[in-house]
Amino acid sequence: MALPHCPKCESEYTYEDGNLYVCPECAHEWSQDASADAEDALVIKDANGNPLADGDTVTVIKDLKIKGSSSVVKVGTKVKNIRLVEGDHDIDCKIPGIGAMGLKSEFVKKV
Predict the structure, then answer these.
(1) Measured CA angle at 56 (ends 101, 73), to 5 deg
(2) Share of the chain above pLDDT 90, in %
(3) Phi, psi at residue 107, to the nearest 5°?
C-alpha cells in the first residue's frame, strides 16, 4: 500500500507514526482518517495550473487596477508569503508599496 503524499507540500516521503501520517520535509502531521478527505479539499492553482500553498512567492502576470484608487499593481510584481483563503479573491498578501490586499489566483504565477 502506497502512503499518500503530503497535503501541504506534496512531498512523497511521508511515513506513518501511530495513527498519523508525517511529512519529514515540512513537518506537517495529519490523521489517517483525514487523508481520505484530502482529495475533496479545495486546491487553488495559479494561471499555469501549478498548485499554490501558504507561504509561496508569486509574480503578477497582468497589470491590476486597485479598486477605489488610481494605483496599479504592475506586471512582474513579486509577492512573497501569500496566504490562501476561500472566496472570489483567494490569495491574501501584502504587496510592497501598496499594502495588504486580495488577489485572484488566475492573475499570478508561482515563482
Answers:
(1) 35
(2) 56
(3) -110, 15
Q: Are residues 100 and 70 in the same domain?
A: yes
We report the CATH number of the domain holding residue 19 as 2.20.25.10
Residue 45 within any structural domain of the chain: no
Mean of pLDDT values over 12-28: 89
Residues 46/62, Cβ–Cβ less than 8 Å: no
Contact partners, residue 37, CB within 8 Å, separation at least 6 = none
Task: Report d(CA 43, CA 84) in Å as an integer.
Answer: 10
Q: How many domains does the chain have?
A: 2
Q: Kindly tell me if the per-residue pLDDT of 2 is higher than 70.
A: yes
Q: Cell numbers of 59, please? A: 509574480
Taken in order 60, 65, 67, 73, the sign of the CA dihedral is: positive
Alpha-carbon dihedral 78, 103, 100, 8, rounded to 10 degrees = -80
Question: CB neighbours (10 Å) of residue 11?
Answer: 14
Phi and psi at 37, nearest 5°, equal: -85, -15
